[in-house]
Amino acid sequence: MVKDINHVLKETLKKLDLDKKIKERKALIIWQEVIGDKLKKHTKANYINRGILFILVNSSTWAHQLLFLKSELISRLNNRLGEEVVKDIRFKLGTIEDKEEELISNEEFDLSEIELTSDELKEIDSSIKSIGDSDLSEKIHSIMVKDKKMEKWKLKNGWKRCKYCSTLHPDDTDGCMVCQLKSGKQLDKLERLLLESPWLTYEEVNEIYPELLVSDYNRIKKELIDKFWGEIEDGITDVVRRQKPKLNQKFKVLIQYYVMLKEKIHPKQLNRDIIEEVIGSNYIKIYDKL
Fold first, then answer.
1. pLDDT 10s digit of each residue in the chain, 290 long?
2. Is the Cβ–Cβ distance between 240 and 290 less than 8 Å?
3. Alpha carbon of 278 to those of 15, 45, 256: distances in Å?
4. Which of 156, 193, 244, 276 is within CB 3.0–4.6 Å of 284 for a Cys-Cys bond?
5. C-alpha gyration radius of the chain
6. Does residue 97 share a domain with residue 124?
7. How far lies 134's CA from each of 7, 20, 137, 149, 170, in Å?
8. Could you give the residue ranges of the DSSP H alpha helices within the chain?
9. In degrees, to the nearest 5, what angle opens at C-alpha 202 toward C-alphas 201 and 207?
10. 23 phi and psi, to 5 degrees?
């Protein structure tokens, strides 16, 4: 019977899209437990947006160290939450207050003057009426009221809806932080950076573009690898047939860039054995003649 009730509650929460909100809020709460005593005074879980957890860090040294712990921290958080709630973590320099604060700072979002209409309250009550547990219903009601007040506060203060995902964002930005990245503005810069320095790792690129997602780095890198390999396969017959010094040198550099990009190898570490391992024994014979 208890299992049946729990199942009904979970299904109800999913339908209301509250299960996700509750777990995202829990991720903020458990951050200090996950990070440990040594680091918790240097960090603060600021907010979470579409699976990206934003953490304030009080020094660049700690921010750099935390980059190397990112995968482990994501794993710990999601293990505690029981599913993949946190997909990435962004570390930003900021001031960490000693005293405990609300998860959403009242100085930043003053909701004291925001009132909900009777229709808005009725809509919230209607959404949770199927939840039989009074304590759970009360908690969810509180979350939904706060979320609605937050939405009204943002609209009142000139925030706009992102044209891509409808998330509210400040009026002085082109869209929400996540969609700005996905719109390609930063991604075009990343592609140019990898073309210039194909050996750069995600951690090194992340120092330049802190908002960059691992998934976007991997996607663009794969696209460039596929593009380089396609050019190698398409051009190798022409190179062998024509045997022009300038064309040979250009093709040799293309192969070297492909290997550096694929293996994250700096030019100083590049050698024939590595190149052969990547392009194969047949292609290395042609490479040696270039």
1. 444 555 555 555 554 455 677 778 888 888 988 887 777 788 988 888 878 898 988 887 777 778 878 888 898 898 888 888 898 898 888 777 654 444 334 345 678 788 999 999 988 888 777 766 677 678 778 878 888 888 888 888 888 887 766 777 777 666 665 566 555 555 677 788 888 888 888 888 877 776 677 777 888 888 889 988 888 888 888 777 787 888 788 888 889 999 999 998 888 889 999 999 998 888 888 888 87
2. no
3. 49, 42, 10
4. 276
5. 26
6. no
7. 16, 20, 5, 22, 36
8. 2-15, 18-35, 37-40, 60-67, 70-81, 118-128, 134-156, 177-182, 185-196, 202-208, 214-242, 245-263, 272-279, 281-289
9. 105
10. -70, -35
Tokens representing 171 are 């009026």
Instruction: Give dist(CA 116, CA 145) in Å, integer.
Output: 8
* Full residue range of the structural domain in which residue 211 is found: 186-289
Q: What is the pTM of this model?
A: 0.40
Same domain, 214 and 231: yes
In terms of Cα–Cα distance, which of 220, 214, 263, 262 is closest to 71? 214
Domain with residue 77: its CATH number is 3.30.300.180
Distance in angstroms (rounded) separating the CA atoms of residues 121 and 263: 57
Asked, for residue 212, whether it belongs to a domain, the answer is yes
Question: How far is 73 from 78, CA to CA, in rounded Å?
Answer: 9
For residue 180, tell me if it sits in a domain: no
> What domain count does the chain have?
3
